[in-house]
Amino acid sequence: MVRLNKIYTRTGDDGTTALVTGPRRLKHDLRVDAYGTIDETNSSIGVARLHTGDMPELDAMLMRIQNDLFDLGADLAAPETGETLTYEPLRVIEAQVTRIESEIDQLNAGLDPLKSFILPGGSPAAAHLHMARTVARRAERIMVELSRFEGETIDEPALKYINRLSDFLFVAARFANDGGKADILWVPGKNR
After folding, report:
1. CA-based nearest residue to 158, from 21, 59, 19, 34
2. What's the rounded Cα separation, in Å, for the pair 16 and 187?
3. Is the pTM of this model over 0.85?
4. pLDDT value at position 2?
């Protein structure tokens, strides 16, 4: 269990932060950027949830996702080193990916098929979910870039989860837009 008695430590005053596994990294290190962007995604979802109280099923899904995002951040902050640890690092697992896929299918089942791309917006909940989606996509780009560096591993379920999350947030935004009826469709070349 996490226990935080003191919020500031002064250890980061030199521009570094500690990973869960101990080593210090610069605060602009790509791994730190990855889990920081996961935190931004989580905060964006928190703002979206201010507008999902009248959609309890969706709100419950979003709350589960917020918890999963803390798992993902912990996963990223404890990279595989090949060393024996005195604890088992928290990892995103395939069951979390399967659950989010199931929830995408559940929300999408009642939506009309898309005939065009949609513009982010509509209801306040949908607009904020679209914003969270774009932050999740940025997190995914950073994670994929990080995974390409020698010695920087990210487990497959973590990459799958962040990829599915942006899909979930897209479908959730449509769901929050009166089941897609309030979606704003892109009209190619409309303003030429």
Report:
1. 34
2. 47
3. yes
4. 63
175 closest CA partner among 48, 67, 66: 48
| Segment 122-172, tens digit of pLDDT | 999 999 999 999 999 999 999 999 999 998 999 999 999 999 999 999 999
Q: Which helix (H) or strand (E) holds 17?
A: strand 16-18
- C-alpha–C-alpha distance, residues 150 and 132, integer Å: 30
CB half-sphere exposure, 155, CA atoms < 13 A: 21
Closest CA to 106 of 135, 64, 138: 64
SS3 state of residue 30: helix
Provide the residue type at 37 as one letter.
T
Please determine, for residue 1, whether its predicted confidence score (pLDDT) is greater than 60: no
Specify the 3-state DSSP secondary structure of 18: strand
What is the rounded (10 degree) CA torsion for 111, 98, 79, 18?
Answer: 50
Give the whole-angstrom CA distance, residue 134 versus residue 170. 9
Contact 77, 24 (CB under 8 A): no
Number of CB atoms found within 10 A of residue 1's CB: 2
- The helix (H) or strand (E) run that includes residue 26 is strand 24-26
Q: How would you classify residue 178: left for phi > 0, otherwise alpha for psi between -120 and 50, otherwise beta? A: left
